[in-house]
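Ex. 9. Protein: [Ribosomal protein bS18]-alanine N-acetyltransferase.
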Amino acid sequence: MTTGTVTIGPLQHADVPKCHEIELALFPGEDPWSENAFHSELDNGNYYIGAYAADELVGYAGLAASPHEASVHTIAVVKHWQGRGVGKLLLRTLLARADEIGVPVYLEVRTDNEPAIAMYLAHGFEHLGLRRRYYQPSGADAYTMGRPAQSV
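Predicted structure tokens for [Ribosomal protein bS18]-alanine N-acetyltransferase:
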């Protein structure tokens, strides 16, 4: 899938060092994903995609799915690409995958991440609950959000 100058494709093991670099830049003061965590997600067959601009990884997203539900594990976009629709494109690609299997989708999002919350609400998610001190080591709270299964 392509939009403007960004192409969505499968995330590769070769992308993992850049993913970790993006994690460190975007989530200071938190516990960013390690390279091993990304390799494990890819090895376990979860659905991970990258957003590429001129062969540069500018974002990534991951979804774990079972026959009964799906969970968005991560969506991240480098700072200088934020606000250009890359996160929305990544989310829509994940949701299309979940819709292929016809399962509800769940996620957690920081309660202070207003742009992400607005994006999720615009894509049919609703607030389901609050997880106190979900993000560590900062202790930031997270909303649990869900979107009902959609038929294709």
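Check your answer against this statement. The longest strand covers residues 56-65.
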